[in-house]
Amino acid sequence: MKINLESIARTALELLDESGLDGLTMRLVATRLNVHTSALYWHVKNKQQLLDVLANTIFATAAEGLEAPRAGVDWQQWLGDWARRLRQAMLAHQDGAKVFAGSNITEPAVFRATELALRTLQDAGFPVRQAARGVAALLHYTVGFTIEEQFHLGASPDGVPQGVDGARFPLTAQAYQDDNLFDTDTDDCFEYGLTVILAGMNVTRAS
Fold first, then answer.
1. What is the reported pLDDT for 167?
2. Given a cut of 80, is residue 88 above it in pLDDT?
3. CA 180, CA 103: separation in Å to the nearest integer?
4. What is the mean pLDDT of residues 43-62?
5. Phi and psi at residue 9, to the nearest 5°
6. Are 1 and 62 found together in one domain?
7. What pLDDT is recorded for position 163?
């Protein structure tokens, strides 16, 4: 059977969804593709390169159809929508955010999306350096939040955890009791953090 990066990525993503990142191995991918492991190594040299391929695939999915802001859409709306797209693309696969973090992403869609984001911010009055830092902060928040979200996926709030003395740490205990610091309404939590970052970018614009 002939294989290429596209078939490798498709198969590896299927296995990722079944086994998670820790269970994904080069041997498992080769077996599913019905090829010798040596044939797989011809295309990807090690597991990290395999993860790079998966991260590029996830990003390309998130960036599909991404265009510059339409008339009436401001930079905050556009960047917020982009962050939501990326989060959903990572959530579509088990451990998708962990795959994405630290990977070498060279997909042309990455550079196109980055260019669109920087251009959008520059048009809104951001110097390029400040725009780049803002985009990086938003990206790091989105990936980091989604890693935590996927780690806690399916967990139910446990109330105040053991070790939190309500008499000594009343506000911490209240935060756990009323809202849970790992709130299961992750959409709402993500939107709150997104609002904070975008508002902060707006306040510090060209300062």
1. 87
2. yes
3. 32
4. 94
5. -65, -45
6. no
7. 76
Nearest-angstrom CA–CA distance, 30 and 176: 45
Check whether residue 33 and residue 70 sit in a common domain.
no
| Predicted pLDDT of residue 155 | 60
Rounded to whole angstroms, the Cα distance separating 11 from 13 reads 5
Residues 36 and 107 in one domain: no
Residue-level pLDDT at 179: 63
pTM reported for the whole predicted model: 0.89
Segment 147-183, tens digit of pLDDT: 999 988 766 556 667 778 888 888 888 887 776 666 6
Distance CA(25)–CA(19), nearest Å, equals 10
8: CATH: 1.10.10.60
Question: Alpha carbon of 103 to those of 2, 21, 85, 149, 199: distances in Å?
Answer: 26, 13, 18, 19, 29
Rounded to a whole number of angstroms, the CA Rg of the chain reads: 20
Please provide the DSSP assignment of the chain as one string.
----HHHHHHHHHHHHHHHHHHH--HHHHHHHHTS-HHHHHHH-SSHHHHHHHHHHHHHHHHHTT--SPPTT--HHHHHHHHHHHHHHHHHTSTTHHHHHTT-----HHHHHHHHHHHHHHHHTT--HHHHHHHHHHHHHHHHHHHHHHHHTTT----SSPTT--TTT-HHHHHHHHHT-TT-S-HHHHHHHHHHHHHHHHHHTTT-
